[in-house]
Structure formats: structure tokens, C-alpha cells
Design goal:
Elements (H helix, E strand, L loop, with lengths): L10 H5 L2 H32 L2 H10 L4 H7 L3 H4 L2 H21 L4 H29 L3 H31 L2 H22 L14 H14 L1 H17 L1 H4 L1 H7 L6 H22 L2 H6 L1 H7 L13 H13 L3 H12 L5 H26 L5 H18 L1 H4 L1
Helix pairs in contact: 2-3, 2-7, 2-8, 2-9, 3-7, 4-7, 4-19, 6-7, 6-9, 7-8, 7-19, 8-14, 8-18, 11-18, 11-19, 11-20, 13-14, 14-17, 16-18
Keywords: Cell membrane, Membrane, Transmembrane, Transmembrane helix
GO molecular function: transmembrane transporter activity
Subcellular location: Cell membrane
Length: about 400
């Protein structure tokens, strides 16, 4: 494992790399465009069917197959050149969004199209993430990765807000055509602004699914990489359950509409944690703070045992997600621990497991909320997070 640098990277260093600027632009266009597509399509579906369930299914359809794509297709991130893979992926997004904008499709076909895009989403993300350690050596990788995290959150929020604004002046179909235009721009950037770099690994003689399974077993079978994957997955997946009961907790305070404030505070804490950890903490100190920061994701949740009011609850949520800056250390260690030819799949597996774990954590917390008070569920999430950090102290140190 490469020793961390003692010198922090600067934003000018990161944005001074042309290929990083292109990848950063692709990520921003994708998250914002997909957010607009999702909200426009959900509204369009509800207007056609009058069914909240149908609208919810459309809203979630793009995320549901993420785990399947991560299990069966991730090896493509290392076996195909990034320019070819990302151009194809954004062309797929363009085609699907344009077909949806035309409208008139039955709900099963809409779901099938969204699933098709969702299957390849983890592959596209893994291809981008695998390029970062090559482009940004040393602490530049940590700063670049933090920018992706912060910008993804910001672009998602802005995309959803823009989607709501667009729908006040455009039809859902019009908003979908704008999302399609964004996908077309992304495809053009990928094709003409990314270098024609070779794939990290030679094409395997076996299929993508078999190669993906084989490498996943290798990553999970090695003690070092398994520990790092679990260290990235568990504290986040366990602590995020608190967000799953934000609505009932706000309801107990007599302010059900304030759930958005709790979730916004959590998002702000995550943004701040990544910013501070990547830019304002020395790399060597950041490495030593990985375990305390991971524990911070759960510790503030214990204070919900005292039933804090809205301002204090928002502060506790923000304090907990501030600790998510620990994830930058785990990601750096993971990319250093695997050979370049499987790096794309490693970061893809990390992301797929993280999405799956968060879905399970939120779902489990919601189920517990049927039998327990929301504040007690939050306390349980915090305690489980601290226990996980205790068992994972070796990979987190």
C-alpha cells in the first residue's frame, strides 16, 4: 500500500488535468440529467395513471438493477477502453430518454427501458472512477474523488430543483427532451474529448458475467480488500438508516414537513465532511483520523435517545454525516491494494455494495419504525455503526 503524501493537493492541480475536467463534466451532466429525467417521468406517469405506486416504481426503476449490473457486468469497466464504453453508455441514455420523451409507452415498457439504463450505470461509473488514480497520483486522487462526491450531491439536488422548475414552464415531455439533449452532449464529450486510451485489462476469453463473478470472489476472498470493502460499506449502511425514519421523527415533533430539513442537514454534513477531509486536513493526519471519523457517523445518533428538538436534530444529523469523509481514506487504500487491471471492477464493486447496503439499511430502519419510536431506531442505528467500527478497526486504522 502506497504511503500517503504529506502535501495536500490543490483544486488547480486537479482541474489542470484535461481528462479529469472531461470526466468531471460527464459526471455532472449525467447526475443532473438523470435527476431531471426521473422527476419528469414520475410526474408524467402519475398524470397518465393517477397511481402513486406507478410513479414511485418509475422513480426507483433506474436504481433497482444497479446491484444486478454490479454483479454481472462490472468486468467491462476494465476490459473496454473508457472512451468507447462511456460514449456507448451515454448514447444509451440518449436513446432511452428520447424514446421516453416521445411518450405513449405502456408502463411495463417504460420500466424495461429504465432497467436497461440502470444495468449499465455501475459500469459507466466504475470506468470513470478507475481513471482517477491514473490521472491524479498521490493526494490528487483523494481531492478528485471528493469533488465527484460533492458535485454528485450538488448536481442531484440542483437537477431535482431544476426539474421542478422546468415542469412549471414545460410539459414533462419537454423536460425529458432537455434531459436527452444533456445525454447527447455527454456522448459528444466522451467521444471527442476523452483520449483513446487502451483498456486496463486484456479482454478475457470468458463472458462478462463469469469474469465479473471471478474477480468479485477474488476481491472478497482476500483479507485486505474484503476488510476495506466492509469498512466502506457497513458504517455508512448502518448509519444511513436514521434517514429512513426522518419523516416519522419530524412528525413526532409536530412538524412532518420538517423532514426535508433533517435530510438537507445530512446532505450538508456529507458535503462539508468531504470538503474538509480532502482539502483542509493533511494527508498523513487524514489517514490517522479514518477510524474516529467512521465512528462519528454513528456517535451523534445516540443522542436521539433524549428526543432533541428540530434545530438540535439537524445539527446531530449533520455531525454524523460529516464523518463520511472517512470514506476517502478507505477508497484510496482500496485502489492502492488492487492491481490496475481490476481497479475498475474493484471501485465498481465498492459502489454497488454501498448502494445495496444503504437500501437495506433504510429499509430495515423503516421496518423497525413500525414497532419502535423513530428516535429509538436512530439510537439503534448509531449503536450498530459503532459496533461495526469496533470490528473493522484494523482496516480503518
Amino acid at each position: 500500500m502506497t504511503a500517503p503524501s504529506t502535501t495536500s493537493a490543490r483544486y488547480r492541480d486537479v482541474f489542470g488535468v484535461p481528462e479529469f475536467r472531461t470526466l468531471f463534466s460527464l459526471q455532472t451532466l449525467q447526475v443532473a440529467g438523470d435527476s431531471v429525467r426521473t422527476i419528469a417521468l414520475s410526474v408524467q406517469t402519475f398524470e397518465r395513471t393517477g397511481s402513486p405506486v406507478a410513479a414511485a416504481l418509475v422513480f426507483a426503476a433506474g436504481m433497482l438493477p444497479y446491484v444486478v449490473g454490479g454483479a454481472l457486468l462490472l468486468s467491462l469497466a476494465d476490459r473496454l477502453p473508457a472512451r468507447r464504453l462511456l460514449t456507448g453508455y451515454h448514447l444509451l441514455r440518449l436513446a432511452v430518454t428520447a424514446v421516453l420523451a416521445v411518450g405513449g409507452l405502456p408502463l411495463p415498457l417504460i420500466m424495461a427501458l429504465l432497467v436497461a439504463v440502470g444495468l449499465f450505470a455501475p459500469v459507466g461509473s466504475a470506468s470513470v472512477q478507475a481513471r482517477l488514480p491514473v490521472l491524479l497520483p498521490g493526494d490528487g486522487y483523494v481531492l478528485g474523488r471528493s469533488l465527484f462526491t460533492m458535485t454528485s450531491a450538488g448536481a442531484q439536488i440542483a437537477g431535482q430543483a431544476a426539474g421542478g422548475l422546468l415542469l412549471s414552464v414545460l410539459t414533462p415531455a419537454g423536460a425529458l427532451w432537455l434531459a436527452a439533449a444533456g445525454a447527447a452532449l455527454a456522448a459528444g464529450l466522451a467521444r471527442f474529448r476523452l483520449p483513446d486510451a487502451p483498456a486496463a485489462a486484456r479482454p478475457a476469453s470468458t463472458g462478462a458475467a463469469r469474469a465479473t463473478w471471478r474477480t468479485n470472489r477474488l476481491l472478497l476472498g482476500r483479507r485486505t480488500t474484503r476488510g476495506l470493502l466492509l469498512a466502506g460499506w457497513l458504517p455508512i449502511s448502518l448509519s444511513v438508516g436514521a434517514e429512513g425514519v426522518a419523516v416519522p421523527y419530524a412528525g413526532e415533533l409536530g412538524r412532518p414537513d420538517a423532514a426535508g430539513l433533517l435530510l438537507s442537514a445530512a446532505a450538508a454534513g456529507m458535503f462539508a465532511g468531504n470538503l474538509v477531509a480532502a482539502r483542509w486536513i493533511r494527508p498523513d493526519l487524514r489517514e490517522r483520523l479514518a477510524l474516529p471519523l467512521a465512528a462519528l457517523t454513528g456517535a451523534p445518533l445516540l443522542l436521539f435517545a433524549f428526543g432533541p428538538g428540530l434545530p438540535a436534530a439537524c445539527a446531530l444529523m449533520a455531525a454524523g454525516t460529516f464523518g463520511l469523509g472517512y470514506e476517502l481514506v478507505v477508497q484510496r487504500r482500496l485502489v492502492d491494494a488492487v492491481p490496475e487491471e481490476i481497479r475498475g471492477q474493484a471501485v465498481g464493486l465498492y459502489g454497488s455494495g454501498l448502494m445495496t447496503g444503504q437500501a437495506v439499511g433504510i429499509g430495515t430502519a423503516g421496518a423497525l419504525g413500525e414497532a419502535m419510536a423513530p428516535g429509538h431506531v436512530m439510537v439503534l442505528c448509531g449503536a450498530a455503526t459503532l459496533i461495526a467500527c469496533l470490528f473493522l478497526r484494523r482496516p480503518l486504522r
